[in-house]
Amino acid sequence: MAQRSRPRLVDVAQAAGVSIAAASRALSGAAGVSDAIAGRVREVAAELGYVADVHARTLAGGTSTSVGLLVHEIGDPYFTEIASGVLRVAAQRGLTVQIGHTGRDPDSELAQVRALVANRVRAIVISGSGFVDARVQAPVKRELQAFQDAGGRVAVIGRHHLGADAVLPDNLAGGRSITEHVLSLGHRRIAFAAGPAALTTVADRLAGADQALRAAGMRLADLPVVEEAFTRDGGTRAALRILDEHPRTTAVVALNDDMAIGVLAALRSQGVVVPQQMSVAGFDDVAVAEHLSPALTTVRLPMAGMGEQALLLALKEPSARPRRRSTDHHLVVRESTAPPRP
Amino acid sequence: MAQRSRPRLVDVAQAAGVSIAAASRALSGAAGVSDAIAGRVREVAAELGYVADVHARTLAGGTSTSVGLLVHEIGDPYFTEIASGVLRVAAQRGLTVQIGHTGRDPDSELAQVRALVANRVRAIVISGSGFVDARVQAPVKRELQAFQDAGGRVAVIGRHHLGADAVLPDNLAGGRSITEHVLSLGHRRIAFAAGPAALTTVADRLAGADQALRAAGMRLADLPVVEEAFTRDGGTRAALRILDEHPRTTAVVALNDDMAIGVLAALRSQGVVVPQQMSVAGFDDVAVAEHLSPALTTVRLPMAGMGEQALLLALKEPSARPRRRSTDHHLVVRESTAPPRP
DNA sequence: ATGAAAGCGCTAACAC
DNA sequence: GTGTTAGCGCTTTCAT
């Protein structure tokens, strides 16, 4: 096992019979080298299998070629699609992406941000809901501010108040749309399967729901909002509780598709037929929503596009004031919602 | 915009009134510092918001704190779950992970490997099928060999012949199991919705199918194997072709769940009722498989576990000969398969 | 236990 | 156009 180290720039320069400066310029495509030398250097480099050390290059003052992406959990299809968008843009630009889980835990998020900062990434994209309580994310905010002061760039998806460019999913209007839809079908005994109220995403979607309800002369406060984890299992537990505590419910609005999938599973296990005995709606329109049983009525958000937008924003020159890009949303009516039985 | 750069080790050392050597030792937890000094340094560092520069650290000879993960497409649930496992282990070990898309394209794969090598990652995990034709991946193999010779570690998931530690999903036996299941239901006019035959995963799963068929006195060569992209859309196209070219088919075995989802969608659009008029089986048991309409009969592979295993292998001391870890598989019978109608 | 100093491999001034 | 050289911020001998 040779443990022979990789060729360095000196090796290439020597083999090509030029100085390391010339070699460096030739390889980074900078001006100030004759085509003849540039060509030879590149040839020799390819022959030797030379690959420049990113650490040395970055340390020496070259700009960083990597960006960071933080998601709550890559297994959640919502984040998967966002990540896909980010990776696409990064690949186009020849950027490397470092990805980290935050698990919706502020401490873990802080640790991940620190790691990215230590890696001197060019930009950080943070996706996923923040917390309603601003104090919880104060340490992260401070860290991000320092990062930006030192020339780093930050873009967030779906959270506010972080002093950075933001892509804002249409949670409020989406919450209104899906609730209007359920109301228009004739439902009045509606229950919400919600994630933790501390998440801004949950708060925003519920606020939208409240708007729709008020327009119909009702109030969210009078309806059951069952709080569980913002996951498939959380949806299952929420549905079970709704069945148990509010048996006359005719429609469940889940605050994301993942929970809706859990709701569907719970209802099936309890022999409740959707949509005949219970309507179910989701939020996000993840890729599988249309393939579920029954196909899920939901609100479509352009997740992959949000990921692309966010990285694009972060790669742009910073503006004096944080930029905001709001997305649109589309109500997608499929088979899981229907009028209540008389 | 201050552009004020981040505090460096010198700043910490100065503020604590010690040499940078002492500060370095204190922060990296190395031996040779009095507890008093170590404590003070850490305190000051925290106060200043000091975070060591990974590039400088790595360049100076510290070991790299990041690992690379290559997937075909993070949006594919198969890879999503693998990635999830990798991220979990990485987080536990305090490692950063760089992720890249290869898009099942050898050139792009080579570029991604180079990027990871340039980043001096400690280990590279490559997931996803390789190509049956060894020549196609020769350049990547060479690059990986050089990386390993220089002390880097590599682990692959689901491919062979790369001279590295490997986690091998039970594709052959799984292909046999799912085919045996369909045969045992009484199906004889079976069609396969396959990905490109050039992928080893496809080849292995088909080989398993052939074994099962031969045991039943049949041969794969006599059955339709429709080749399309190894994706949801590919599944849709495959199903349409099967309906068109082999209308008497009673069961479709898709070679991964993503294709099976596409098959299900195509059949629904054509008014073919599953499983009454057509049985459908998948492979992988991705998270949503059980929530599909109808719930999918498939072969479960421990994807997240495979991701964990792979990174764990890559983080271990290298062995003289490449290690191999084979996974198990479980036939999961749900609602999408049933006996053919008489 | 502590500090001084020599690099790690590269880029970017700066000379020529 | 080409080469020389001074760092980038850190870890690690090697003295003390």
TrEMBL record, chains A, B:
Q: Does the keyword Thylakoid apply?
A: no
Keywords per UniProt: DNA-binding, Transcription, Transcription regulation
Keyword Transcription regulation: yes or no?
Answer: yes
The record's annotation in SMART domains points to:
HTH_LACI (SM00354)
Query: What InterPro entries does the record point to?
Result: HTH_LacI, LacI/GalR-like_sensor, Lambda_DNA-bd_dom_sf, Peripla_BP_I
Q: Where is the HTH lacI-type domain?
A: 7-61
List GO molecular-function terms, semicolon-separated: DNA-binding transcription factor activity; transcription cis-regulatory region binding
Q: Which domain of life is it from?
A: Bacteria
Residue ranges of the region described as Disordered: 319-342
Protein name (record): LacI family transcriptional regulator
Q: What is the source species?
A: Saccharopolyspora hirsuta
